[in-house]
Amino acid sequence: MSQKPFIGYVDLRAFAHATEDAEKVLTAIRNLLPMDLTESIQFEKNSLAGHHGNSITIFTAQLLEKKILPAVLEKISQNINALDKNNLNNNIALHIEKTNLYLRFDKQAAFLGKIKLSQDDPIHFKIHFKNKTYEEILEILKKSGLLT
User: Fold this and answer.
1) Strand partners of residue 128
2) What letter does residue 17 receive in the DSSP assignment?
3) CA distances, 94 to each of 103, 104, 133 (Å)
4) Closest CA to 126 of 82, 61, 74, 71
5) Using the 8-state DSSP alphabet, how is residue 99 labeled?
6) CB count, 10 Å around CB of 57?
7) Please, are residues 104 and 125 in contact by the beta-carbon 8 Å criterion?
C-alpha cells in the first residue's frame, strides 16, 4: 500500500484467572494476530486479586509497528465467522468510540485458532485509527471486509 498507515496502534488486554493456564491465554492472544507480530510482541504482566482473593493475571500489549498493523484488521476480517460479521455490521456503532474500534474475542475459540466475538471473559482489542472520522473508519472496515 502506498497510502499512509491508517492504524496508529492496537492495544491488547486479556485476563488469566487462577483456573486458567497463563501460557494458553497468551497463545490465544497470539492466535488472533498475524504471524509477523506474534514473535515480536512483548506482553506486560500484572497480578491482581479477585473479589474472593483469587489470583488474576492481566496481560497487556500495545502494537506500534505501523506497516504491519493493517494486517491485524485483515486477519480478523478474513477469519471471523459470517454470523459475527453480520452482528458486527448491524451493531458497529456500539464498537466505535471516537477514533477507536473496540472488539472482544472469545478466549477459548482463539486458543483453538478461531476468531469469534464474545462478551464473556474476552480478549480485548482496541484498534486506534489515526485522525479518522466515524465515516472514514466505516469505509476502512468495509474495504477490509470486516463490514459489508
Assistant:
1) 9, 100
2) E
3) 10, 12, 15
4) 61
5) T
6) 18
7) yes
Cell numbers describing residue 134: 466515524
Residues 6+ apart with CB under 8 A from 19: none
Q: What is the DSSP letter of 118?
A: -
Tens place of pLDDT for every residue, the chain, 148 residues? 335 568 999 999 999 998 889 999 999 999 999 988 777 789 999 988 877 778 899 999 999 988 888 999 999 999 999 999 999 999 999 999 999 999 999 999 999 999 999 998 899 999 999 999 999 999 999 999 999 8
Q: Bridge partners of 125? A: 12, 103
Helix and strand totals (H; E) in the chain: 6, 6
DSSP state of 5: P
Residue type, 110: A
Residues 6+ apart with CB under 8 A from 98: none
Q: How many whole angstroms separate alpha carbon 147 and alpha carbon 77?
A: 8
Residue type at 106? D
